[in-house]
Amino acid sequence: MSDIIYDEERTANWGKISRNYHKKKKALEIIYKICRTVLLFGLCFLILQPLLDKLSVSFMSEEDLYDSTVISIPRNFTFENYKVTASRDVLKFWPSIEKVKTITVDDSYSDDYYYDDYYYDDYDEEYYAYDTDSRERGLWAFIQRLFGVSIEIGSLFQTLLIVLISSVLQIAACTLAAYGFARYKFPLKNFWFFCVMLIIVVPPQTIMASLYLNFHFFDFFGIIRAITGESVNLLNSVYGFWLLSATGMGLKSGLYIFMLRQYFRGMPKELEEAAWVDGCGKFKTFIRIMLPDATPMLVSCFLFSFVWQWTDSLFSTLFLTNFDMLARNLGSITDRIIQYWSAINSVSGVGVASTAPVAYVQAMMATGMLICLAPLIILYLIAQKAFVESLSQTGIKM
User: Fold this and answer.
1) 243-260: pLDDT as tens digits
2) What gap in Å lies between CA 235 and CA 254, rounded to an integer?
């Protein structure tokens, strides 16, 4: 009888211990979920809070900027900040077409000038003339004279076209180099891959002087000088910018070579061997077997390349000073806003401050940043699936 009572007491104790264990486990799980939620929310808030602040300020009118009762939600909601920032006076964001003005100098002479040569002021209806010998020449200028218009492409489409071509050339060159490092053996392979790693480690600013001299006096093994008698100046030209990308020396090229090399090394060699058995050569195997399978990684590298070159001001300052690049225009947006403020207030009468208020300049800077960021967000939304797939396959932690 005592044994039966002892077994019942032990069973009751084990049941009590088990219930307590499950309660503690469930409590720990709840605490872990709460801590994880708070941590993730805090990280997301730290990342999104500056962006949300800029978004809020970009829709505020000038009165809201000086109203202490307005914190995050604008009281006078307006799109005027976006209109001013995207105008040709600040970022030159959108394309513009102007009708050519015919200016009569005297009774026997008249000529057509562009908007850049004669600026029409809506306030006092006067033309301000500049040196007409500095007019653009070439095919594009001839087309504009032919149709009697002055066309400005705008910084959006100029940046989009230049960066898109540069990113495609860069990824193509990096893919070929990465496949060679992953699959082939050649002399000094490790040394050359070490040089690729140096591209990642060494900042591009350290070779700025060398790039300037090489592209200012560009010559391909003396061939150009032997034919033309002088070297070619590729500075202030988009061809020098594209040449860096096409030769695997563009911005962050070493990182893309490393990422693609690791991806190709992880692909089974049996795929290539099967393609060789079916009669495919090495180039055809690369095009038809390796590239389609590496599409997620290629998309990921393309997004990285596009974003970094979109926001780059180093190479654009060196090679693209004659182009309206968004990153370079954004870097000088403060001076442009001050000039715009002085221009619109110079005709408003006596007593209007000619210096732009700090709050107004900051609001315009925030608006300009959002305008430059918008195309990148759209691009990410389009390529999001392939980008996430590449991260999940390679295990890269971003």
Assistant:
1) 999 998 888 899 999 999
2) 23
